[in-house]
Write a structure and sequence with these properties.
There is one protein chain. With 382 residues, this protein is mostly beta strands. The chain has a single domain (8-381), classed as TolB, C-terminal domain (Neuraminidase, 6 Propeller). Helix content is 5%, strand content 40%. It contains one helix and 27 strands. The protein has a six-stranded mixed beta sheet with strand order 11-12-13-14-18-19, with no helix packed on it. The longest helix is centred in the first third of the chain and has 20 residues, at 8-27.
Length: 382
């Protein structure tokens, strides 16, 4: 399906942007369901989406220091309640390589879903945010992802858009209409071999969409049928928290409605209509059903909404429905083992949203996360 954009000029700009992104990328170089709260089963090696260096060793156990990086509140318009979080891959426009890119879900009045702001924050403690963008096109921004040249793609749940902005925050194009329906998750994916793409999830339909890049965008709804709660802004549970492992071409996401983590292996090759989830998202059919599996289901997952891929292939997962005094980050191995949990905020539950990790080993990993109780970004580090 060819892209649907707002306006002829936007179509032209978007086509140019897609070519630029593709060029920048080339320059850089029926699954089994586990019982609730148990380790996931891996039917065969072909179904195993584990990282090449994944192990049962915990990285989270080594991250003993928790430090505030800085406020996520937009200094220009006061937008707050940070949801989306990612790391700038290069120095362009408003971003320096390694900066944290953040989108705020609420306005300065803290009304759910009324935020329309993106800010940048240096990743060193004591940093202050820099305003990047303010636009109705990013109203209720729930997630964002950056291409190698820092072009920003956002999942704007309330606006029902997937806007594209340049590295300085200028709107290039606004993708809307089918198959986008309350965009809720976003991640950039550059496989070890093959073409780059963005993956997006939808809160109204429970679908996973691949946005194929080229002179024109095309869309493939590679998976559908995941459970949703049709919640209003601030209460949404649906596929979100996308993470991509390029070494094995595997997409992970959290589904807060049924407390699961899902993996789709060989995701670049999954065709339109490839995976159909059923039985509350616990079983799969379709031509690519064997590429989908439940990594983990049940406690301690409680409304998971965010994930981050750790250097050894493990996943950090953030809950949103923990009781007051508990905001858990859980570490899972790709095989479905719970390796560690840590409570990072003893205030009201529901503080954890976007997460992102850097590093090459347990000795230098940094796990950044948005803390919505504090309206800031914090880091767990050795």
């Amino acid at each position: 399906m060819l892209y649907s954009l707002s306006g002829v000029r936007a179509r032209t700009v978007a086509a140019v942007a897609a070519v630029a992104i593709t060029a920048a990328c080339s320059a850089h170089d029926g699954a089994m369901s586990p019982a609730s709260g148990t380790q996931a089963m891996i039917p065969s090696q072909a179904h195993n989406p584990g990282h090449a260096s994944a192990s049962s060793a915990s990285i989270l156990k080594h991250l003993t220091s928790q430090v505030v990086i800085g406020s996520a509140v937009d200094p220009k318009n006061g937008a707050q309640n940070p949801y989306g979080l990612t790391i700038a891959p290069s120095t362009n426009g408003a971003f320096t390589a390694g900066d944290l890119a953040i989108c705020n879900f609420n306005s300065k009045y803290n009304q759910q879903g009324s935020g329309k702001s993106i800010v940048a924050l240096h990743s060193t403690p004591g940093s202050t945010p820099t305003h990047v963008s303010q636009s109705a096109s990013i109203l209720g921004c729930a997630a964002l992802a950056l291409s190698p040249d820092d072009t920003t793609w956002a999942a704007a749940m309330v606006a029902n858009n997937n806007p594209i902005l340049n590295s300085s925050g200028k709107l290039l194009a606004n993708i809307n209409g089918k198959p986008f329906s309350q965009p809720w998750g976003q991640v950039f994916a550059q496989p070890a071999s093959g073409s780059p793409a963005f993956y997006e999830t939808n809160a109204r339909t429970g679908t996973v969409v691949r946005i194929n890049l080229g002179s024109k965008f095309t869309f493939d709804v590679i998976a559908k049928g995941f459970p949703i709660n049709r919640g209003v802004a601030g209460t949404v549970l649906a596929p979100s928290g996308l993470a991509y492992d390029p070494t094995i071409d595997t997409l992970y996401f959290a589904d807060g409605k049924n407390n699961t983590i899902v993996a789709i292996a060989n995701v670049s090759s999954v065709p339109n209509g490839g995976i159909v989830a059923s039985h509350n998202g616990m079983q799969f059919s379709g031509p690519s059903a064997s590429d989908a599996r439940i990594v983990y289901s049940g406690s301690p997952l409680n409304g998971p909404i965010s994930t981050a891929l750790l250097p050894n292939g493990n996943l950090a997962v953030g809950n949103t429905l923990d009781p007051a005094g508990t905001n858990l980050i859980i570490e899972l191995s790709p095989a479905g083992q719970v390796l560690d949990t840590i409570n990072v905020d003893t205030g009201p539950g529901g503080a954890l949203f976007g997460m992102a990790a850097t590093g090459t080993s347990s000795s230098d990993t940094k796990l950044y996360f948005n803390d919505d109780n504090q309206n800031n970004v914090q880091v767990l580090q050795p």
